[in-house]
Amino acid sequence: MVAYVSDMRSDLLVPRSSAVVDAVAGAFRDRPAMDSGEDPHEAHLLSQVCDLLGCEAGLFLPTCTMANQVAVRCWLPSGGPVAADALSHIFTVEHKALGLTGAAPQAIPSQAGHITPQAIADYLTENEQTPCLVWLENTHNLAGGSIMPAGWQVEIAGHCAEAARPLHLDGSRLWNAAAADGQELASLAEGVSSVALSLNKAVGAPMGAVLAGPRALIEQADQVRKAMSGEWRPIGPLAAGALAAIQGWRERLHHDHETAREIAAGLQSRLGDVAVSSPETNIIMLHCPMGSAGKIVAFADERGVKVLPISDRLIRFAIHGGVDRKAVPFIVEVVTKAWEHVL
Ligand SMILES: *Cc1c(COP(=O)(O)O)cnc(C)c1O
Question: What's the whole-model pTM score?
């Protein structure tokens, strides 16, 4: 057993604050609500999240994967292509779920995970007859938490509107993009037809995600959620916990991003800046020699630093509120030792 553990395998491992725990416990003392829609905590949560996103209506769902999958079913009821970056979460982690919808992945040329306005304009022109769903991810997970370049979304939204095609934003980490850029969530959700936002990662709700958009879409999404057995009841305690979690998010995420920059700078000074990405938000990527990622991860794990192998040559660090700034030198030391040991 090691004395100290810094677990950066995912930002969903953020410790839940006592405000969140107290809110959950408090809501358990209320009279439970029968159905979604009847619960005051849920109504309060959705109205705050919709205000933040500038959306008309929202649906509280168990996971962001489900929020994405409900969106696919609403926008492509008879299947068709989902046009997105090749390494987007919907194509990599969610490919099996996507397969169940009858939708098919259509990779679009991109830069640092973000499909370019020109590439999507070309695709829509060449495939005028095919109903499709255009898909964005901000920040982009596998591109190392990269932020979509300013102006691209509005331009892409313009192309989609012209072609009368829906545009979905997988904003699982939109919180991080907004904190890093000093933007409002609403301006980062501008122009999209629907947006999915995680509550269990950056902000540290007990669990859950929100799908938001126009009221007509969300009414349809509510039916799809029921069909997918995703209506959780009673909902009050989880909604109350999520509501507590979203307070003060911006300052907390600034702190996470600074921690990420400190860890990356420490690693770059030891391993070089070819191996270590320069984080824009809370994710650091370590590019390892072919075949070494698993060994580096195992060596670091035994010494109390947990990170996630993405492939045999790529390791992800997801920084969250539980990664102590004082532990940065320790983390840098362990990962450097692991690298030197394996190579
Ligand atoms: C984590 C993640 C999801 C899915 O969230 P879950 O709540 O774990 O289902 C979707 N998209 C992106 C980009 C993610 O990083």
Answer: 0.97
